[in-house]
Amino acid sequence: MKLREFKYFSPRDLSSALELLAIHGGHAKLLAGGTDLLVRMKQRLLAPDIIINLKDIKELRGVQKMADGSVFIGALTQLTELITSSLIQKKYRGLWEAAKMVSAPPLQNMGTVGGNVAQQTRCLFYNQTEMWRQSKPVCFKAGGNQCNAVKGGKHCFAVYQGDLAPVLIALSAQVTLSGKDDTRTIPLRELYSGKGKQPLTLEDNEIIEGIVLPPPDKNRRCVYKKLRLREAIDYPLVGVAACVTLAVDGKTCEAGKVVLTAVGSGPVIISPTKLFKDVPMDDSWVNTLAEEAYKASKPVANVTTPPTYRKRMARVLTRRALNAVRTA
Amino acid sequence: MEKIPITLLVNGEPCDLLVPPNKTLLEVLRDDLELMGTRDGCGLGACGACTVLIDDMPVRSCITLAVDVQGLSIVTIEGLANGTELHPVQEAFVEKGAIQCGFCSSGMILTAKALLTSNKNPKKEEIKQAISGNICRCTGYKKIEDAIAAAASENA
Ligand SMILES: Cc1cc2nc3c(=O)[nH]c(=O)nc-3n(C[C@H](O)[C@H](O)[C@H](O)COP(=O)(O)OP(=O)(O)OC[C@H]3O[C@@H](n4cnc5c(N)ncnc54)[C@H](O)[C@@H]3O)c2cc1C
Fold it and tell me: pLDDT per residue over B20-46, tens digit each?
């Protein structure tokens, strides 16, 4: 499988990359580890004229403690670096668990944090070779006007299957985005539009600089549970991140979120105040949230297992995740 | 298309090449350097047959651009044996019958070598985790795990 021709740039610093992006805009694609982008290019899902490699931009790499106690993860930090960071392993356990469950070690040696959060939505009827796709009408995601997964579907249902976004959003992480003229830091949840065809709110001329984690907190617990066909390589069929901050009694939840992946076109967030603010973490709390997760999950038949099973597993994994945070 | 000059250190030998940016490392290894030991499997990063070591870390050469690895050290399966003397991991694979069709072997052996470089005495779980990104459709993995464990104890 060969890649189509493109022009290649490998800027050494962020400002040169932003300049290139400002000039080439919609014709260019940013390349980090390439484990999502190059696969899609091989399948002819996109054919950019220009590739801007970000791997030579050293300033965007590494895990750093900031003066205010927060932690900055550069967008070009490889997943292996995240996994071997003792700060992440000790203070952000759920994130560490999720990173270890992304694909498999050789892909973790390539894939980056920025590429992970900015990965595209996927569909069994779209992420296929050109020849395979020719056997069906052109779908919404490929620029057509029908959905090949949901009969009569009026829009694209492609599913967001990133493993890091649910944990990062549960931790209330922020993302720093740089454009040619300004830099903005927004809650990571706002990076996702929830739309299958156009899942990110990132502008054509923007680069993700990195992720900002809130300072470590000994009263915060975060876990990630993932369902996949094999224990390795596979994308999540359902993923559930639960993050709670415990009151001093260790039994009451002061704040928190449950965030699901792979059950819709973006991360699905469950965070009503009444279920997280000063609530005892008893069995009924676990069951109520598991039911909320079940209701909020809207999987369709566009991955390898049936949606009814995945919807039920969203409930099961939420229960497991919450039981883990309350007993940890 | 414009070609870009790169130098790769392949199995210890510096190689000067002129490559178009859309050429993968896998294509350069097989087509330009005629090192056919690196297998072209799924081509999409999923199967692990194309695994090579870059700076001692296993990566997928089918989704790595050759221009992206300028100046780096690459080890392919051809780089393991010392003349006619097999590397201990290769020896163990032969000894334990950890090979059937052989298509996954290059990637498996290189992945195992990388594991044993960073972890001299891996536990069974660590062996499983290390090769979890390499698919074998013949052996059922048992003999491969045994071979890696045997190579480790040989090492110790
Ligand atoms: C076999 C296989 C299994 C996989 N399994 C999983 C899995 O289980 N879970 C999972 O989450 N992922 C999985 N992936 C996807 C992928 O490996 C990871 O998500 C990885 O972290 C992506 O990072 P990357 O650097 O390789 O991204 P790239 O492919 O380089 O980039 C992905 C996208 O993000 C954009 N991008 C990258 N960096 C930036 C930046 N700094 N600013 C703005 N845009 C940017 C790119 O333009 C591109 O559109 C799998 C991939 C393969 C091939």
Answer: 999 999 999 999 999 999 999 999 999
Total-model pTM: 0.97
Structure tokens given for A236: 């999540």
The number of folded domains in chain A is 2
Structure-block tokens of residue A81: 């670096």
What CATH number corresponds to the domain at position B126? Answer: 1.10.150.120
Q: Model confidence at B156, in pLDDT bands (50, 70, 90)?
A: low
Q: What would the pLDDT profile of A233-249 be if each residue is shown by its tens digit? A: 999 999 999 999 999 99
Please give the structure tokens belonging to residue B153.
Answer: 């104890």
**Chain A CB contacts of B116 below 8 Å:** none
Q: How far is the CA of A218 from the centre of ligand 1 (A)?
A: 31
pLDDT at A250: 92
Find out whether the beta carbon of A169 lies less than 6 Å from any atom of ligand 1: no
Measure the N-to-C terminal CA separation of chain B; round to a whole number of Å.
Answer: 51
User: Rounded to whole angstroms, how far apart are CA atoms A36 and A47?
Assistant: 14
- Rounded (10°) CA dihedral A101, A169, A13, A109: 0
Residue B67's closest chain A neighbor by CA? A8
How much is the ipTM here?
Answer: 0.96
Arithmetic mean of pLDDT over chain B:
96
Whether residue A101 is found in the same domain as residue A33: no
Identify the CA nearest to A167 among candidates A242, A237, A236, A230.
A242
Q: Are B7 and B17 in contact (CB under 8 A)?
A: yes
The runs of H, that is alpha helices, within chain A are 14-24, 37-42, 79-84, 86-91, 93-100, 105-108, 113-117, 130-133, 164-170, 273-276, 283-296, 307-327
Separation of alpha carbons A129 and A126, rounded Å: 8
Positions in chain A whose pLDDT score sits under 70 = none
Residues A209 and A321 in one domain: yes
